[in-house]
Amino acid sequence: KDTEKEMLKEREREKKEREKKKEKREKGLKEKEMEREKERKKERKRKKEKRKEREKGHRKRDVEREREREKRKRKKEREKRERTQRKRDGERERKKERKKEKERKKKRE
Q1: Mean pLDDT per segment of 10 residues, for the chain of length 109 residues?
Q2: Following DSSP, what letter does each residue of 20-58 receive, concatenated?
Q3: What is the C-alpha separation between 9 and 83, in angstroms, rounded?
Q4: Which residues contact 26 (CB under 8 A, 6 or more apart)?
Q5: Distance between CA 21 and CA 17 in Å, rounded?
Q6: Dihedral of CA 22/27/30/35: which sign?
């Protein structure tokens, strides 16, 4: 009987030890998982910051491109105005010349 009781006690003690080990292992695993999650969170934050920086650079570049585009557009419009003005001036000159020619003809006659 004594040995039976001792064996039961021994089994109970072993069972408790196994439970303790299991809990300890689970606790360790949980802590590792939490640590990994923290790292993932930090990594996501770092990536987000990098992306923000990159986008800021892109915005800067886009603004610069837009400015250049506007500049080219204004230049083109100015050149167009100048061309039409030269054309009008040329027409006026030719008209004046024709008028003078007519007057010369009249004087000759």
Answers
A1: 85 96 96 97 96 86 92 97 93 91 85
A2: HHHHHHHHHHHHHHHHHHHHHHHHHHHHHHHHHHHHHHH
A3: 109
A4: none
A5: 6
A6: negative
pTM of the model: 0.44
- Report the distance separating Cα 109 and Cα 107, nearest Å: 5
> Residue 91, CB half-sphere, CA atoms under 13 Å: how many?
6
Could you tell me the two tokens for 47?
A: 């990536």
And the tokens for 14? 């072993």
- Write the DSSP assignment of 10-23 as a string of letters: HHHHHHHHHHHHHH
Q: Can you say whether the dihedral through the CA atoms of 47, 53, 55, 57 is positive or negative?
A: negative
Report long-range pairs for 25-30 (Cβ below 8 Å, ≥24 apart). none
Q: HSE of 28 in the Cβ direction (CA atoms, 13 Å)?
A: 6
